[in-house]
Structures are given as C-alpha cells and as structure tokens.
Specification:
Elements lengths: L9 H4 L7 E2 L4 E2 L20 H4 L22
C-alpha cells in the first residue's frame, strides 16, 4: 500500500491547530481559533482536558472563599 500524503493547513504545520484526534472521523480537529498549548498538544476550547472531562477550565471561576471580604456596616 503506498503512503498517502495528506495536505495540511499552514496553521497546522506551524503547530497552531488543535491536534485532538476524532476517532470516528479518522482525523484531527484542526481548528485554529482559541488554541492553547497543553501537555497533550495544542487544543481548542472544545477539546481541552477539562472540557473533555466535562469540567470548567481551572481559574475561570470565582469561589466565595476567594472573593473580597464584604465591608462591615455599622
């Protein structure tokens, strides 16, 4: 079987495209908007580790214990 060459977008060749593997479609995501680096490779917001686990992104929530203390009224 001869090797197939798959054309990549310029963004994908520079590492700025989401490299999440979509198994049922046998392809990488390839989205270039909102991509950030992760240990597993560049990921778009839809394929971050937290998004895939159904969790919010760390640091995007303000917890009550981290909020500024309310001023006392006298």
């Amino acid at each position: 079987m001869p090797d197939r060459t798959i054309a990549s977008s310029p963004a994908a060749t520079r590492g700025r495209a989401c490299r999440y593997w979509i198994a049922r479609e046998a392809r990488r995501c390839g989205t270039t908007s909102g991509v950030r680096p992760y240990i597993a490779g560049p990921r778009c917001p839809r394929h971050t580790p937290a998004a895939l686990a159904g969790q919010p992104e760390p640091g995007n929530t303000l917890h009550e214990h981290n909020a500024f203390p309310k001023e006392a009224t006298a």
